[in-house]
Design brief:
33% helix; 26 helices; Zn_M74/Hedgehog-like; 6-stranded mixed beta sheet; CHP04096; DNA phosphorothioation-associated methyltransferase; globular; alpha+beta; Rossmann fold; 5 domains
Length: 870
């Protein structure tokens, strides 16, 4: 049973299963409720014992699922399940209440009525998780242990229905034990807030993920607690140190390029001391300070009020901030701008050069292909020995060839070449490493530079240089669009880029302005979209639109990166979306987010249209809250690139789907319910990202072609009706053969002549025993793909056959039309007023045989020449 589509659709579809809460049944499809009551009776359980219904959209099975605390717990665990097959009455029960790793439920809002009061809370949690990519690996999210491990690995936990960074939060108790009496600073035990971690904390993990913290960076953890972050970084070879007043008070407090103040200020009860600690940490930072604090959540108010926070039952202090409060607090205390990295985590740069490099890194392209690093030149071959001659006098042996200098410092020389290629220009001395090795080998750095310049792959170098120029222009163009105040001076690396690529800053900004103006030109956009479609991929729809996956933005031409980047200034981080659609002529960008883009047929849950000309953002949501059915994203491979994982499988999926249902060139097609139906009726199913042959037989009432049902071809003819034998095919291939017969032969006949009367269709071995007269199962193809007891096909010709007659028509005329207009295999003509026998099969003989009646009653086959026949 499939759920009805449309505005009232409620529920979540995962594979072939559709989940719906009992509260949503009446609004969605009351028949589901009645089916659940039948299943409950078969399972001998009460309707009060379950709250979620799971429907198998292929096969008619239904599961009754019990999720205790559905509304109270963010990811309720499955306690009990009853799987019921209403057709057979078979029931299987599973109890998960003692399991340490039960299945859990996500996206609860999808299962509820659109107007449920808790739906908005559930939607917010889902969106927060999606923004962190928590559902990127669906295999890991379905069970409790794997899900909790994934949350911890990302540095988060869930409190109520809020996503909280793992900091120094402790477990709260609803009781007020131990909180009687007056609390003062002497009774606050700050060290009890320190956690013992098995992975990096959320702020430090974010620093590494964004490239702020690298292998060569010095790091100091001010208030390091038990020191787990420091130990992990040290094990990775990073120069890391830390200090803590309780756990590491004997360690020195020292400056470092990156200083982390992780979940410290929120445990200091004295406001003056809190601000002083923040300033002291900033003073230690040479490049940037990372500040993290606990954000307010459902459990933030638990504890006894004290100063501007609370005292917990463990006598620890907690001060909670909102995101905006934390930003304002940091900026007012340090008189510096902040950059939000994550909820509750901000980065404050002291070094403006480093800040520019960090912002610039977000504007860089991804190379179309890996840069070609020149190989070290081979050593000259030894000269061949001269032919021996009688020496007049003793000759000295020739001196061995001198070892080339690049072989004396192979690693350093290769590093120099690589850096040259990466920068797209000659690197400065402070931009390369191992200069002493190079100088010792070559005699001078100038000789090393000249040797490297001669070894560069010029084609690859010019590509690198062009990409670096584009990166710089994109960065400057977006700075202009943001109307950001210019930095007092450019970071030294950017200064060198400007001099190498543009000669001076004025020329660079002029070219960036030209690029920004080009991004407003439909002609420039059209040409860039054409180039991108040819070289990168994506979907160019006529001359109006260009669609591409968000992961490929960095590989687009500069003018498109600026165009999309301008939309990103208004929308936000484009990497959180799935597909970007460029409106070439109207100055708009549509940002598309799907329920799960990894699915072969993802559904669009949000479209955001950004109008750059009017600086407007319009949001269109789909789902039960909005009342609009999420549209299906068809032809997904067209927005992908052949280098993306799963591209080949998706391409094959799209092509095969196009064979069974229409999808127009704009990617518009039927609803998800219709798609599922067409796939099933086509004898297929979705297996992962592939369309494969369905391993479940269709029902007798299922359509077989456009005009018939399987029943029409299986339960037809006098013998089948008289005996009442089931006559069901045992081989799935037989069903497919009957469908091919209907689609290729019978549907065209019905469309042309109107209705037909089937007199003989599929005949299984049991039915064949009861048919009087002369039949030949090994030849007539009525047995389709059925096999005998020896496992061999009853009819080696395969395919399928039927006999039919058209009322008030000369069957010779009908036979002539069939021969001329259909890809038949064999046709037997018995007379103008008798049914004809026609088959469709792999041999495609296109052979017409007239069965001539003799005086003795026998019929003799004779080949008949008809137009279109062989």
């Amino acid at each position: 049973m499939a759920m009805s589509a449309g505005k009232n659709q409620i529920g979540k579809t995962v594979g072939h299963h559709h989940y719906i809460h009992v509260l949503g049944v009446e609004q969605s499809d009351p028949a589901v409720g009645r089916l659940a009551e039948v299943a409950a009776r078969l399972a001998r359980t009460s309707c009060a014992d379950f709250n979620v219904i799971r429907l198998d959209q292929h096969g008619g099975r239904i599961a009754l699922l019990d999720y205790p605390n559905f509304f109270d717990v963010a990811f309720p665990a499955l306690a009990r399940s009853w799987n019921v097959d209403p057709a057979t009455g078979k029931v299987s029960f599973r109890d998960f209440r003692e399991s340490p790793n039960p299945p859990i439920l996500h996206r609860k809002e999808l299962l509820l009525p659109r107007d449920h009061p808790d739906a908005a809370t559930f939607v917010k949690l889902t969106r927060d998780l999606e923004a962190l990519g928590m559902f990127d690996d669906p295999i890991r999210v379905g069970f409790r242990i794997q899900w909790e491990e994934l949350l911890r690995a990302r540095g988060y936990r869930v409190s109520g229905h809020d996503l909280i960074p793992i900091g120094n939060q402790e477990d709260f108790d609803d009781t007020d034990d131990g909180l009687s009496g007056t609390n003062d600073a002497a009774q606050v035990f700050r060290h009890l807030t320190a956690l013992s971690r098995q992975s990096l904390s959320a702020p430090v993990a974010t620093l590494t993920r964004l490239g702020v913290l690298q292998q060569t960076t010095t790091f100091f953890d001010y208030g390091c607690g038990r020191g787990d972050d420091v130990a992990t970084l040290q094990a990775a070879g990073i120069n890391a140190a830390g200090w803590d007043p309780h756990y590491a008070s004997d360690k020195p407090v020292q400056p470092a390029q990156i200083v982390n103040l992780g979940y410290v200020i929120n445990v200091i009860e004295d406001p003056a001391e809190r601000r002083e600690v923040l300033r002291r940490a900033f003073a230690l930072a040479e490049t940037a300070l990372c500040v993290s604090a606990m954000l307010a959540s459902e459990d933030a108010v638990k504890g006894k009020p004290f100063a501007d926070g609370v005292i917990t039952n463990r006598k620890t202090f907690q001060k909670y901030f909102t995101q905006a409060e934390l930003r304002d607090y940091i900026e007012s205390s340090l008189q510096a701008n902040t950059i939000a990295l994550a909820p509750g985590t901000f980065l404050v740069f002291k070094d403006q050069d480093a800040e520019q490099r960090f912002q610039m890194s977000r504007s860089r392209s991804r190379f179309l292909s890996p840069l070609s690093i020149p190989r070290l030149p081979k050593s000259p071959k030894l000269p061949k020995p001269a032919k021996p001659i009688k020496p007049l006098k003793e000759l000295r042996s020739p001196l061995p060839p001198k070892t080339p200098p690049w072989e004396l410092c192979a690693e350093a020389f290769e590093g120099l070449c690589r850096r040259w290629m990466e920068l797209g220009r000659k690197p400065a001395l402070d931009e390369i490493e191992q200069t002493s090795e190079l100088e010792a080998a070559f005699g001078s750095l100038g000789k090393a530079y000249r040797a490297a310049a001669g070894r560069l792959d010029q084609t690859a170098f010019e590509l690198s240089r062009a990409q670096r120029i584009d990166d710089m222009l994109v960065y400057l163009a977006l700075q202009t669009f943001r109307r950001r105040k210019p930095y007092h001076h450019l970071e030294i690396g950017l200064q060198r880029d400007v001099k190498a690529f543009f000669q001076d800053y004025g020329s660079a900004t002029d070219q960036a302005g030209q690029l920004l103006r080009k991004a407003a030109s439909p002609e420039s956009l059209s040409a860039a979209c054409q180039t991108a479609a040819e070289k990168i991929g994506g979907w160019l729809i006529g001359s109006k639109y260009y669609k591409i996956h968000s992961s490929l933005i960095g590989r687009l031409p500069a003018v498109l990166r600026v165009y999309i980047g301008c939309a990103g200034v208004l929308y936000g981080d484009m990497s959180l979306a799935d597909v970007i659609k460029i409106h070439i002529h109207s100055g708009k960008v549509t940002v598309i987010r799907c329920d799960d883009f990894s699915l072969p047929l993802p559904r669009v849950v949000e479209r955001v249209k950004v109008n750059l000309r009017h600086q407007e953002v319009r949001v269109f949501s789909y789902g039960q809250e909005s009342g609009y059915e999420p549209p299906v994203m068809f032809l997904k491979a067209r927005v992908m690139n052949e280098e993306m994982p799963g591209y080949a499988e998706q391409l094959e999926f799209d092509e095969r789907l196009g064979e069974i249902m229409p999808v127009d060139e704009n990617g518009h097609g039927p609803s998800m319910e219709e798609v599922s139906s067409k796939i099933r009726l086509g004898g297929l199913k979705v297996d992962g990202n592939m369309l494969v042959e369905d391993d479940q037989p269709p029902a007798l009432e299922d359509p077989c072609g456009a005009n018939l049902k399987y029943r029409d071809l299986i339960i037809c003819g006098e013998t089948a009706l008289r005996t009442g034998l089931p006559n069901l095919p045992q081989q799935l291939a037989s069903y497919r053969a009957l469908r091919d017969l209907a689609e290729n032969i019978l549907d065209p006949v019905i469309d042309w002549y109107g209705s037909i009367r089937l007199t003989y269709g599929f005949s299984g071995p049991e039915l064949a025993k009861h048919i009087p007269g002369r039949i030949s199962p090994p030849l007539d193809q009525h047995a389709a793909h059925e096999v005998n007891r020896a496992g061999k096909h009853i009819c080696p010709r395969l395919g399928a056959a039927c006999d039919f007659i058209v009322a008030d028509e000369d069957m010779l005329e009908v036979a002539t039309w069939v021969a001329a207009n259909t890809p038949f295999d064999r046709l037997y003509f018995y007379g103008s007023d008798r049914p004809i026998h026609v088959s469709y099969g792999p041999e495609n003989k296109r052979e017409v045989i007239e069965m001539v009646l003799k005086d003795d009653g026998r019929r003799i086959p004779r080949k008949l020449r008809l137009n279109g026949a062989n």
